Amino acid sequence: MKKPVLTVKTAILCLLALAFFTAAQSAFASGSDTTKAEAAFNASEVILHHVKDDHVWPITHSLIIPLPIIVYSSERGLDFFSSGNFFDEHHNPVEYNGYKLAHNHISIVGSESHVLDLSITKNVAMLLINAALILLVFVNVANGYKKNKGRAPSGIQSFFEPIILFVRDEIVKPNIGEKKFESYLPYMLTLFFFILFGNLLGLLPGAGNLTGNIAVTMTLAVFTFLITNLSGNKTYWGHVFWTPGVPLWLRVVILPVEIVGLFTKPFSLMIRLFVAITAGHIVILGIICLTFIFKSYAVGIGASLISVFINMIELLVAGIQAYVFTMFSSLYIGMAVEEHDHH
């Protein structure tokens, strides 16, 4: 029997973990200094601030990009201005033109009138950047197909063509079927690359948490829900409302279960993507915050190295989540359009 061999990679990870936890232990031993640091630095507030949506786009502590504010109320009509007006030169919150921004919510000072907020927030800006990037990339890919018709792909087309073929041949076609997959392929490709690009852009420093926003994942899930049920054939709805092959009395029990199942499928799509992406951001931010809690160079070095390692994992998760969402969407649509032979 061969003895287990300690690889170089394992040894390095063990040393990093040992150094990190040793530094953390020494920081805890500092007593009152650590307590003061924890009181001065609120890690949960920092993490939630970076994960949640905002009316400004903070790049660094001193560089904050104001975003357009668009609000409508029955009392004052439609108003446009910059979100920078809500802050003074020291970035302290102030009122502007009768409006105030508190807890990321805009309201009219001294009024109970409801304000409809149509502002370009950080996540909306990320959504527009993501859409613009997708258009830029795939217009070039489409032009490449026209230019290289009958020839080997080149340039950006050669990079994305294997991914497009993978989505078509390994995700969409097997789950929807060879006869009907082409009708749904444009949606599936858009879904896959929208999630993939959004996941990858969200890993950039200072970027918005687009695919970790539950409103975005809910919208994607609703699209899949609508396409699935609007495409459902007679057999699909027959299995939902009149399940064949079961006694009549049991159909009374199965019917509410099947109806609930129509909504749990998109709900699971929404929650899975939201939780996976948001959890990754929280873990990375939580590890980075240890540096400011302990105020230790050793903890900072250890936290930085571990954060880099987790970021590498997040790159993999970005692709996996795009694959999983597209695969389950294809599977649900395939179940709705599948033809059954009854003998």
Short descriptors:
globular, 343 residues, disordered N terminus, two-stranded antiparallel sheet, mainly alpha, 2 domains, 10 helices
Summarize the structure.
Helices cover 64% and strands 8% of the residues. With 343 residues, the protein is mainly α.
Strand order in the largest sheet? 4-3-7
Element-level helix/strand string: HHHEEEEEEEHHHHHHH
Tell me how many strands there are: 7
What average pLDDT do the residues reach? 84
SS-derived structural category: mainly alpha
Round the Cα radius of gyration to an integer and report it: 26 Å
Count of alpha/pi helices: 10
Shape: globular
Range of helix content: 55-70%
- Stretches where pLDDT is under 50 for at least 5 consecutive residues are 1-39
Q: Give the strand content.
A: 5-15%
Q: What's the story with the biggest beta sheet? A: 3 strands, antiparallel
Distance between the termini: 58 Å
- How many domain modules? 2
Detailed description of the structure:
The chain has helices at residues 8-28, 32-40, 43-51, 122-147, 156-176, 181-201, 214-230, 234-241, 248-294, 297-337; strands spanning 56-58, 64-66, 68-73, 77-82, 99-102, 105-108, 116-117. With 343 residues, the protein is mainly α. The protein has two domains: 66-117, no CATH class; 122-337, no CATH class. The chain has a three-stranded antiparallel beta sheet with strand order 4-3-7, with no helix packed on it. A two-stranded antiparallel sheet has the order 1-2. Strands 5-6 form a two-stranded antiparallel ribbon. β5 (99-102) and β6 form a beta hairpin. The relative contact order is 0.12. Residues 1-39 have low confidence and may be disordered.
